[in-house]
Amino acid sequence: MRFYGYVLTVLFSSVLFKHAKAQEQPKLVIGIIVDQMRYDYLYRYWNDYGDKGFKRLLEEGFILHDGHYQYAPTYTGPGHASVYTGTNPNVHGIIGNEWYDRKSKSLVNCVGDESANTVGSDSYDGKMSPHRLLSTTLADQIELATNKRSKTIGISIKDRGAILPAGRKPDAAYWYDKSNGRFITSDYYMKDLPEWVKAFNDRKLVDQYMSQTWQTLLPLDRYDESLPDDKPFERAFPNTEKAVFPYDLSKISQLQRFGIKNSPYNLLPATPFGNTLLFDFAKATLESENMGKDDIVDLLAMSFSSTDYAGHQFGNFSVEVQDMYLRLDRELGEFFDYLDQGIGLKNILIFLTADHAAEDVPGLVSPPGDYFRMNGFEAYIRHKLNELTGSDPIESFSNQQIYLIKNDSIDLKEITKIVSTYALLFPGVRSVIALNDFSNCIDDPLICDLVRKGIMPTRSGDLYIQLHPGWINEAYLAGGTTHGSTYAHDTHVPIIFFGGLINASNNYKRAGVQDIAPTISALLKIARPSGSTGMIIEDVLK
Ligand SMILES: [Zn+2]
Fold first, then answer.
1. Element (H, E) at 516
2. Among the residues of 116-188, which ranges form H helices?
3. What is the distance in A from the centroid of ligand 1 to the CA of 235?
4. Which domains, from first to last, does the chain contain?
5. Which residues contact 317 (CB under 8 A, 6 or more apart)?
6. Distance between CA 461 and CA 457 in Å, rounded?
7. Ligand 1 centroid from CA 248, angstroms
8. From ligand 1's centre to the CA of 481, what distance in Å?
9. pLDDT tens readout for residues 429-487
10. pTM summary value
11. Active site residue 216
12. Could you say which of 9, 74, 76, 118 is catalytic?
C-alpha cells in the first residue's frame, strides 16, 4: 500500500508539475519588428484599421506608450541587434548599418562577411553572417536553455533583419535576394537550403505579386490622415515620373531608361507585397519546421522591411505609407487567426516593436527642420583644418562621425577645438561631441548619454556631429524621409507584448527597447543575453 501510495504521489505530482509548466511556458515566441514604424502610426491610422490586427494587439496585449531607443544612431542594424541582445551598440558592437573600419581602411557592412558564401543563389547577397555581433541574442539563450532542442529562426526581406535577431548559433536565418526574388542564406548557417525553402522559392510568388496593380486598399478619399497622393516630397519608382496610385507593377517592373532596367525582384521590397511575401514565408517556416508543436520553446524572429523601404521612398504622411500600414494591419490580423487555429495563441508569446522610427519630411514642417548638406560640411571642415593646421587629419566621415588619422604628429585636442568651433557655423549643426571624453560633453545630458550608448571605441570615430531636431541627410532632397538621430521622432517606437502569458494593460513609463529581451527572458525563466544591460519591465510580468 505504501508503495502504491508512493507511485500515486509521484504520478500525481509529475502530472501537476507538467500541467503547471505547460501553463507557464509558451511553446513559441514570435518577435515582430516593423522596420521604421513610428509609435504614432498606431493611432494616426486607427480609424482605418480592422479589428484583428493592431487594434487586437492594443486591446488584448500590453502596450508601452513611451518606449524608446536609448542611443543614436537609430539605424536598422543597431535596432535589430538591440531588441534581441537586450543592450545597446556600446555593448553589442553593431554601431551602424555600415561603418568605417580603421584596419581595412574601408566601410564594412554590419553583417557583411567576406569569408561566407551565398547558399540558394549565385549572387553575392548571401556573403553575410553575424560575426560582428558581440553579444548573444534571445535566440542564442533559448538554444542554450534547451540544449539546442529548440528551433530558432530569423526571417526578413533584409539580411540584417534576419541575421542579427537570430544571433550566433540559430537553426537558420533566411533573407530575400533582390536579384532573383528567392529566399537565401549563407554557409555560415548551412551547406544547402532545406527542401521546403527550395519548394517555397519554386512557387515564384514574387512573379505573381508583381504582375498585379497596387491600388489603395480603401477608396482614396478615406486616406484623409495623409497628404494628397501627388506631392513633390515623394520619390517616384525608378524610371517613372510620379509617385501616384494606381501602380501597374507589371509595367513598372519592365521600364528601362538610360540603360537602367527595373526588375520586379528589386521593386518588391518597396511595395506592400514584400510584407505579404514574408507572411507566406513565415507560415511555411512554422509548418515545415514543426515550430510551436511541442513543449520545448521555439523562436521565430520576423522583420517586415517594406515599411522602411516605403518610408524612405515616399516619406511619412504619404498615402503609400498609410496604405502599407492598413494592409499590414489586415495581414497581421489574418496571421493571428492562423496562429490561433494552428498552435493556439495561448501557447504563443508575441512581441512587436520597430528597429527605429522616422523623421518628418522637412518640407512638411519647414522651418525648423531642413536638409543637412553632409558633403558640403565635410569639404568645409577639411578645408578649415587644412587652412589652420597645414594638413587634413580626417581619415573618414561616416554616420555623422569624424574619424581622425591617428599618429604622433596629430594634436587631437587642437583638432577637436577647431572642428568644434567651425562646425557650429555650418547650417544644422547643434554641437560637436568628442567620443573619447564625455565628461566634456556640453550638450543636454540625455543627448550625451544617447550618443555614448551608440558607440564603441574600437569601431567608432572621434567626433560626433549632432544636428538640430528635424534635420535630415541631403540625400532625401529627392523625396522620402530617413532616421538616425537622437530625437523622439526617430527613437519613439511601439513596444507591445501579446499572447498567452500577457494580460491586457498599458503604461506611460519610459522604457528602453533594450528592456524587451530581459523581459522575455524573465517570462521564459531563462538566462538573458550575455551583453544584456536592459531592465525587466515589471508591469508586463504582473
Ligand atoms: Zn530599419
1. helix 516-524
2. 138-145, 159-166
3. 18
4. 25-358+491-541 (3.40.720.10), 374-426+429-467 (3.30.1360.150)
5. 226, 227, 360, 361, 364
6. 8
7. 27
8. 12
9. 999 999 998 998 989 999 999 999 999 999 999 999 999 999 999 999 999 999 999 99
10. 0.94
11. no
12. 76
